[in-house]
Structures are given as C-alpha cells and as structure tokens.
C-alpha cells in the first residue's frame, strides 16, 4: 500500500514538473516578440552583436549607442571593394528608402574592415555617395577587429598584392534595434523590397 502511495506521489510530482516545464517553454516562446519575423538561426544568436567603439566621418569616436538610434542595417565591408560591397550597400540603401515610403525611419550603417586605407574622410565620402542617411565608420585595427568579432564577421586583406589589394570578407547585413541590439541577419540575395518587409515586421512588433 505504501509503495502504491509512494508511486502515486512520484507520478503527481512528475506531472507537476511536466506541466511547469510546458508553461516555462510556452512562456519562453511567447517572450520572443520577434519570433514571427525571424528567418535566420544563429548558434548563440542572442550573443551576436554588442557594444563597439569606432570613428565616424568627422573623426569623432562614437559608440554603438551613438550610432544605433533607430532600426539600423549594419554592413561590414570596405570602400575599395570593386563590386560586392557597392551592390550590397546599395541594396540596403534601397530598402531604407522603401521603408521611408512606408513611414518607417531606418539607418544604413557601413563599417570598414580596411582601416589602413579607409580613413574617416574616405568612409564619409563613400557613405554620403551611397545614401544621405548612411553612417560610415572606421577606426584603428583594434577597434575594427573588436566590432567585427562582436558580429562574428570575417575579413582578411591580401596585402601582398600591393596598394590595390583586395579584402576577403563576409557579406551579411545585420538588423540592429536600439533597445534590443542584434535581432536578425540577411544574406545578400534578399531583394530590397523583401528586406524592407522583414525590417517592417520587427518595427511593428517592437
């Protein structure tokens, strides 16, 4: 009899724990207000992104808090890039224009991974030519590496090619929200209209 009662008690406890876990699981799932907007999965994604300290076109040292004041599309590239970077950055700029037409304000951000050539003035001219709202950032090699590491981007300069060397780099664009930090990333094959749709979803659910 005691054994039956003990087993019954264990079953009650297990049932209680199972219900509790289900509630916690549902609560955690519901706590992600952007779940319906996300189309990307990153291992440890919650840890991607974060604080950075770089130099803007005016030669001023700025932090992520200074730069990310509204939904922002962050891209790591370099101004001497012959084709990929201009196309990717233009895509982001067109998405920002599409969002503006929908009444949503967003900022395109360009972070150079070629600090040896991309001075604040060079980055500033590049950003201004791509979009009037674009923020161009550079910095010391250490500052650039820290920002790149935060977003887990890859870059490697082919310095043995002379002054006109190329830089291998990753080509993702990152959506960063002022209050939430990094929320999603986008591949370069996503067209501007679809990118604008995705950003709008995050804005509508913030």
From TrEMBL:
Concerning InterPro entries, the annotation shows: SCO1/SenC (IPR003782), Thioredoxin-like_sf (IPR036249)
Recorded protein name is Thioredoxin domain-containing protein
Note the coiled coil stretches, chain numbering: none
Task: Give the organism, scientific name.
Answer: marine sediment metagenome
Q: CDD domains of this UniProt entry?
A: SCO
Instruction: Give the protein family.
Output: Belongs to the SCO1/2 family.
């Amino acid at each position: 009899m005691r054994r039956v009662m003990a087993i019954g008690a264990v079953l009650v406890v297990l049932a209680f724990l199972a219900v509790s876990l289900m509630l916690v699981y549902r609560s955690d799932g519901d706590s992600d207000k952007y779940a319906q907007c996300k189309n990307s999965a990153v291992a440890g994604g919650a840890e991607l992104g974060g604080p950075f300290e770089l130099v803007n076109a005016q030669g001023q040292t700025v932090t992520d808090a200074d730069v990310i004041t509204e939904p922002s599309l962050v891209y790591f590239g370099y101004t001497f890039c012959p084709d990929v970077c201009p196309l990717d950055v233009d895509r982001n700029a067109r998405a920002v224009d599409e969002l503006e037409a929908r009444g949503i304000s967003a900022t395109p951000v360009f972070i150079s991974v070629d600090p040896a050539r991309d001075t604040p003035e060079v980055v500033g001219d590049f950003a201004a030519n791509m979009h009037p709202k674009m923020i161009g950032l550079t910095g010391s090699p250490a500052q650039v590496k820290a920002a790149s590491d935060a977003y887990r981007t890859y870059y490697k300069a082919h310095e043995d090619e002379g002054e006109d060397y190329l830089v291998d780099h990753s080509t993702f664009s990152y959506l960063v929200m002022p209050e939430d930090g990094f929320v999603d990333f986008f591949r370069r094959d996503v067209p501007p209209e679809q990118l604008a749709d995705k950003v709008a979803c995050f804005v509508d659910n913030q």
